[in-house]
Specification:
By secondary structure, the chain is α/β, with parallel strands linked by helices. The protein has 20 helices and 16 strands. The strands form 4 sheets. Strands 13-12-9-16-14-15 form a 6-stranded mixed β-sheet, sandwiched between helices. Strands 2-3-1-4 form a 4-stranded antiparallel β-sheet, with helices on both faces. The protein has a 4-stranded parallel β-sheet with strand order 6-5-7-8, with helices on both faces. The longest helix has 19 residues.
Length: 520
C-alpha cells in the first residue's frame, strides 16, 4: 500500500506543489512529501517484509531519514505514529487500521510546538475520524478518504493565506493522496494520468524575504529532543524537532542558518543538512508559471535530470534546467527514484546525470526501464555533472547534446575533501603510499584517493596547486561543518596562488565533504 501511495502522490506531485502557499509560498510541498515517501519505499525494499517490526522500523526510519520541508517532516511523524501502532501485531486488521490512523494523527499534532488548524494536521484528524466508522478494511480506507476530503475543503476558510489564494492546504491534499493511494492498491486500481496544472497559487503573492528553510539530521545527540527544540526555537519559526530510531530531525525557517547549524552541531554528530532560500524558490516558481502561460502548448525537446546533494549545487543544477534527484555518495537514490524524476519532466526525451560512480548503474537501469525516453551521460562526480549541465539546452535534440555534454564533463576536475571512516593503507596513483587513520583528512581527485593528512584547507591548496597551470575557474563549495571564516581564508590563499584564475566560493556543499572543489 505504501509503495502504491508513493506512486500515487508522485503522479499528483506538481498539483500539490501548485497549491503550496502556507507557511510560505515556496511551491515544494508535493516534492518534499514525495521524497519522504521514496525514502520509505527504499527501506521497505531491503527490510524483512514478513516481519511487522521490521516493516514498522523501515517506515519510521525511512520517513525520518529523508523527511524534507515542513510537510515532509510532519508526514514522517504521521507515518511514525501509524507504524508504532502496528509494530507488535502479527497482521493489520480493521481494528488495527483504525488505531493506526488515530496514532498517526496524535503523533503529527505532538510533533508541532504550536499546532495550526487548516493544515495537514486538520486533514490527518479528519482521516482518523473517518476511519473509525468502517466495518472492513476497505470501508475504513474509503471513509477515511471521504472524511479527510471534507476536512480538506474546510481548510480553505481556516487560514488567510489559503483564502486569499482560493486553494486548500497543499500538505493536507498531499496526505489525502497518500491514503487514497493505499486504497487504490487494495482495489487494484491503475495509476491515473497526471493532472494538468492550470495555475500556481504562489502567483497570488509578491516576492518578499521569506528566510531560509533549514534542516538537519543528527545522530548521537547529547541532549534530549525537548532541549534541542528549545535551543533551536529562538532562531525562527515553522519549527519541528522530532526523533526516531536514534536520530533527531530538525526543520525551521530562519534568517541565520549558519549560526543555527553551528549551535546544534555542538550537541551531536551532524549527518545531513539542507538550506534553501525560500524567496529564491518563490521567484523560480513565478518565472516557471509565467513561461508556462506564454507557451502552454509547447513541449521542450530535451529535459535534464541530475542526482545532487548540497543546496548550493542543487541551486546550480536547477538554474541550468535540471530536475533534481536527491542523493549521492553514501545516499544513493534507487532506480525508481530516477524513473519518477524522468516521468515528472515534460520533455520528449531526458538526459540523466548520475554524478557519482555508485549511482551510474541505477541511472542506466532507469534509462533501460524508460525504453528510450531517457539516456545517461555517465558523469562520475558532481563537478563533471556541473560541466555537462553547462552544455545542456532544452531546445536541442538529445542525440546532439550527448557528445557536447560528455566533452564539457571531461574538462572539469573535481576535488573532494572529507574524513577517513577507518584505518587503512592506500597507494596513490603516482605510487606514493598513504597510511590513513580513522578521522584523518583525505582528498579525492576525480574519485581517486590521492592525499591524506593535514587540514582540509591544506588538502585543497595542495591539489589545486597541482592544477595551477590549467586552472581558469576554481569553485569552492563548503559544507555546514566548515566555518565561514575558514572558507574566506582558503579563498584568499587560492587567489594569491592562482593569479590568473577566477576563484568562486559558495556555502552549501554536500555534507559528506569539508570542501568540494571544481577546477575548469
Amino acid at each position: 500500500m505504501l509503495r502504491t501511495a508513493t506512486d500515487w502522490l508522485g503522479v499528483h506531485r506538481e498539483q500539490v506543489n501548485a497549491l503550496n502557499v502556507y507557511p510560505v509560498p515556496d511551491g515544494d510541498t508535493g516534492t518534499n512529501m514525495h521524497l519522504t515517501l521514496q525514502s520509505v519505499r527504499r527501506e521497505l525494499d531491503t527490510c524483512d517484509t514478513s516481519d511487522m517490526r521490521s516493516v514498522a522500523k523501515a517506515i519510521s526510519y525511512g520517513a525520518l531519514l529523508e523527511a524534507r520541508g515542513n510537510s515532509g517532516v510532519i508526514l514522517s511523524q504521521l507515518l511514525r505514529g501509524f507504524a508504532e501502532e502496528v509494530r507488535d501485531l502479527p497482521q493489520i486488521d480493521t481494528a488495527a487500521l483504525k488505531a493506526a490512523f488515530t496514532g498517526a494523527q496524535k503523533s503529527g499534532y505532538k510533533a508541532v510546538m504550536k499546532p495550526v488548524e487548516g493544515t495537514i494536521l486538520t486533514v490527518a484528524r479528519g482521516i482518523a475520524e473517518g476511519a473509525q466508522t468502517g466495518e472492513t478494511v476497505q470501508e475504513v480506507l474509503e471513509n477515511a478518504v471521504a472524511t479527510g476530503q471534507d476536512y480538506l475543503i474546510q481548510t480553505q476558510d481556516m487560514l488567510p493565506a489559503l483564502k486569499q489564494a482560493g486553494v486548500v492546504d497543499s500538505g493536507g491534499q498531499g496526505f489525502l493522496y497518500v491514503v487514497r493511494g493505499m486504497l487504490a492498491e487494495l482495489l487494484g486500481e491503475a495509476l491515473p494520468a497526471a493532472p494538468e496544472i492550470e495555475s500556481h497559487a504562489q502567483e497570488q503573492f509578491e516576492t518578499e524575504e521569506f528566510g531560509f528553510c533549514t534542516e538537519f539530521l543528527m545522530s548521537d545527540a547529547a541532549l534530549p529532543i525537548e532541549s534541542i527544540r528549545e535551543l533551536v526555537a529562538p532562531f525562527g519559526d515553522s519549527l519541528l524537532v522530532v526523533g526516531a530510531e536514534g536520530y533527531v530531525k530538525g526543520h525551521i525557517h530562519t534568517d541565520r542558518p549558519d549560526d543555527l547549524l553551528a549551535a546544534v552541531g555542538r550537541h551531536g554528530r551532524m549527518l545531513k543538512t539542507k538550506v534553501e532560500d525560500m524567496a529564491e524558490q518563490h521567484t523560480e516558481i513565478l518565472a516557471a508559471s509565467g513561461a508556462a502561460a506564454r507557451a502552454e502548448d509547447e513541449r521542450p525537446t530535451s529535459g535534464l535530470v541530475a542526482v545532487a546533494a548540497g543546496d548550493a549545487l542543487v541551486r546550480q543544477f536547477r538554474g541550468m534546467g535540471a530536475r533534481i534527484v536527491s542523493g549521492g555518495q553514501t545516499s544513493n537514490p534507487s532506480v525508481q527514484d530516477i524513473v519518477d524524476a524522468v516521468h515528472s519532466v515534460s520533455a520528449e526525451r531526458v538526459i540523466i546525470l548520475p554524478n557519482n560512480k555508485n549511482v551510474l548503474m541505477a541511472a542506466e537501469k532507469a534509462a533501460e526501464l524508460l525504453q528510450g525516453r531517457a539516456v545517461v551521460v555517465p558523469t562520475r562526480t558532481l563537478g563533471q555533472g556541473l560541466g555537462a549541465a553547462l552544455s545542456f539546452s532544452s531546445e536541442r535534440d538529445v542525440n546532439e547534446l550527448i557528445s557536447y555534454m560528455r566533452e564539457s564533463a571531461e574538462r572539469v576536475t573535481t576535488i573532494e575533501v572529507t574524513r577517513a571512516s577507518r584505518d587503512t593503507t592506500h597507494t596513490a596513483p603516482d605510487g606514493r603510499p598513504l597510511a590513513i587513520k580513522e578521522g584523518d583528512v583525505i582528498a579525492l581527485r576525480d574519485d581517486e584517493l590521492v592525499y591524506s593528512g593535514g587540514t582540509p584547507e591544506e588538502a585543497v591548496l595542495a591539489l589545486v596547486g597541482e592544477l595551477a597551470d590549467q586552472a581558469e575557474v576554481v569553485t569552492v563549495f563548503r559544507s555546514a561543518q566548515t566555518a565561514p571564516e575558514k572558507l574566506e581564508q582558503l579563498v584568499s590563499a587560492l587567489e594569491e596562488r592562482l593569479s590568473m584564475a577566477d576563484v568562486e566560493a559558495h556555502a552549501g556543499g554536500p555534507d559528506l565533504y569539508d570542501y568540494l572543489v571544481t577546477v575548469e
